[in-house]
Amino acid sequence: MYNKRIVFLAACLGLLLFGVTLITLGAVVLDLREKFSLDGIAAGTLFSIMPVGILAGSLFFGPVSDRYGYKLLLVFSCLGLCAGFQGIAHAASPDILKGCIFVFGLSGGVVNGATNAVVADITVRGKGASLSLLGVSFGIGALGMPQVLAALRQHYAWNEIVSAVGWLTLAMAVLYAAIKFPPPKHLQGFPLKQSGRMFGDITLLLIGFFLFCQSSFEAIINNWTTTYLTAGDHMEESKALYALSLYIAGFTVMRLLTGSVFRTVSPRHMLIVSLLLMPAGILLLQAGSTFTVSAAGLILLGAGLAGGFPIMLGFVGERYAAHSGTAFSFVLVIALIGNMLVNYMMGLVVQHYGVQHLTTVALAEWLAMLLLCSTIVRRLQ
Question: Phi first, then psi: what are they for 305, rounded to 5°?
Fold first, then answer.
């Protein structure tokens, strides 16, 4: 038998590591450019490798976790994260660095998917609320890593800090090896037949495309907000970065409230709240002539976006309880493809029409999410 509370806490630690993983490369990219004398194109290549690794990890973890369980998968993925952190800290050449970043992304994608899937498996009621509470740890990791780097840089080199964080992931591997997890769902073979049926499940596909929009919405806000706020000397970069941190804070606090204070509120009602907060945030960001208005818009946007993944993954976990890992892989891969495609398209929009169209793209994404959400809720009822 396994202890649900211990498994949940272990999953939270794993997702915190994933938050650290996502932010680390961006936090040390200037140091890497200086170490290897990389130009802008070469640095951009490093950023493109990471999502490919995460996509591969998201595709891989589901069938493997359904067949073999979560323990070995999480142990090996933590070992992969450790190797990735050490590689980023100590790589001797750009080619070795690229390989380490791929392993880093692959392992992070496995940790992200497996921790969400195991929490869905151990939660009988309120899967969305439990997944929201799990998501708080991701926000802590994403917010914490830049602060740790900033605080310790006065005393240690950047690569020493990254290497030390890597050894923490090794400790996590030991912890996962000692914990009992839910048993495998399929003791023989992979559920290939069931995986094929998922392509014919219209509701699951709609959830996947909702997360396509959700993931890409989060990406364009994370990646383009500082450019949007500083365009035309509208705001100093330091203030723009602080406003972006308030967006992440709003995102994290809303997930905490969803998993605790609003735990008894139905997922459908939480979706309504989310979809009302998002356009309010977009319009404030669009009209923001001051830091206060822009920051308020970003806080509302963060709060509105907080519910999408936990609630929709909760629906998936209820619908495919016997194949939750494979089903999570299915929708997460669609979500990550959206992240990569729309972020690339946003770059084209910025190049040809200007960064002021960030809010235009955001409104279009919101409309698509609204239509998809209403259809999904009707089909689930």
Answer: -80, -15
Tens digit of pLDDT per residue, the chain (381 long)?
A: 888 999 999 999 999 888 887 777 767 777 888 888 877 677 767 777 888 888 999 888 888 888 888 899 999 999 999 998 898 889 888 888 889 889 988 998 999 999 999 998 898 888 888 888 888 888 888 777 777 777 787 888 888 888 888 898 899 999 999 999 988 876 665 555 666 677 788 999 999 999 999 999 988 888 788 888 887 667 787 788 788 888 888 988 999 898 888 888 888 899 999 999 999 999 998 887 788 898 899 999 999 999 898 999 999 988 888 788 888 899 999 999 998 888 888 888 888 888 888 899 999 999 999 999 999 999 987
**Under 8 Å between Cβ of 315 and 381:** no
Distance CA 136, CA 94 (A): 34
* Residue whose entry in the numeric block shows the structure tokens 């919405």: 217
| Dist CA 323 CA 326 (whole Å) | 6
pTM: 0.85
Q: Which two tokens stand for residue 33?
A: 């450019």
Q: Of the candidates 151, 161, 62, which has an alpha carbon nearest to the alpha carbon of residue 113?
A: 62
Look at the alpha carbons of 84, 88, 90, 95 in this order and tell me if their dihedral is positive or negative. positive
Which amino acid makes up residue 70?
Y
- Could you tell me if 224 and 348 are in contact, meaning their C-beta atoms sit under 8 angstroms apart? no
- Residue 68, number of CB atoms within 10 A of its CB: 17
